[in-house]
Amino acid sequence: MTVSIHFLGANRQVTGSKHLLKINDKRILLECGMVQGPRRLADRLNRELPEALGRVDAVVLSHAHIDHSGSLPRLVRMGYSGPIHCTEATADLLGILLPDSAHIQKADARYLKKRGKSFQPAYDIQDVEDTLALLQTHAYRQSFEVLPGVRVTFLEAGHILGSAQVMVEVEDGDKPLRIAFTGDLGRKGIPVLRDPDPLPACDVLITESTYGDRRHPPRDVLEQQLLEFFQDETCLRGRILIPAYSVGRTQNVLWYLGRMIAAGQIEPIPIYIDSPLSTKATRIVNRHKDLYDREAREYLESGRNPFFFEGVRYIADVEESKALNKLTRGIIISASGMCEGGRILHHLEQTVGRENDCILIVGFMAEGTLGRKLLERYDYVKIFGERHLVRCRVRHIDGLSAHADYQEMLDHFAPIATQVEQAFIVHGEESASMRFADRMIDAGFRSVEVPLYKEEFVLGT
Ligand SMILES: [Zn+2]
User: Of the candidates 396, 427, 442, which is a domain's last residue?
Assistant: First the structure.
């Protein structure tokens, strides 16, 4: 039997995850993520998927984030019609994230056309519908057959709702080849989510490395920072604008706010969730209470809901959203997370010039984004092509990340490190992946590779 892995995305970078497992003449694709980043290159890569993906027999998906799932409709447009295996919550989230991605591409194409530029979307809403029809859902910790002789088990990853670590077992005589893929690995103690399941022994490990060279502050430090911020009178004088991703970060911020208000630590303050996608995502998280950790379940049993509590309003239509311009005091949580599109831009346009308002940055801001410019305290920023003087306050709170840091990953792998024959590091900036490779070797791994784009390796012996 010949097994190999062909790395086709998120190699020495963080987006566009695609890892093709070849077992004899069969092919299983782990992830089919969209490339995000400098526009022209990303658009081309998202339209022209690697040739090797011309024939795939099954797709296995770790979680719903677009950088892991966003190219599935393109794959389907290219002719893929096999199953796409994922957890039930992942399927629910794909049902809102993939249509949103198609809508954004359509809107971008229209906008660029007006400016005399052309942009060809990678797919449309029909491709998305065709993709959603191929989803096959599975419970955690229950193995299922993907292809004859190949079984997969989803284990909790603790990263976002529905996220899984993927165990692949390939039958081979007496001893199966066991391949573990972390997907995006979460952390212990992320609000609402269960902690990552321990990994069973395996022969091959494929791991992410987003924070391969960084550590996060502990949760009690984060909670203290949030408390100090929301107790600070100068911040509460005006509006507080929080750019946040629709899936994960929005719910985490709500969780902390609700707990602080319920404990009487901060004054009740009106909270507006102004993003249709965030509203839908929060409803999905609210529906999957079966996936909550003990802390969240106890919170529910005490008669409280972490996302729907007094003072929180979910803004539905554009008129209501516009009415928030008149708001003088309150919290607005809106998308997108890096201030690159969506309703947050309209709020920023209003906010940046107001001395009493405050922007609270709680996520990673990539270089070149408006969020990064605000974080770096630029005097002027451009919003909708207009130059604005930044007069509002900008504060930054770190530590809400849903990715394990390097020490958390090493602790997670410690029980299996010496048994792994081959380890591969993906999904990290080059420097983070390389630093993490050194750390894995120090931790007892025998062979650690940081694959290049399109590099292929034979697995097992
Ligand atoms: Zn993710």
Answer: 396
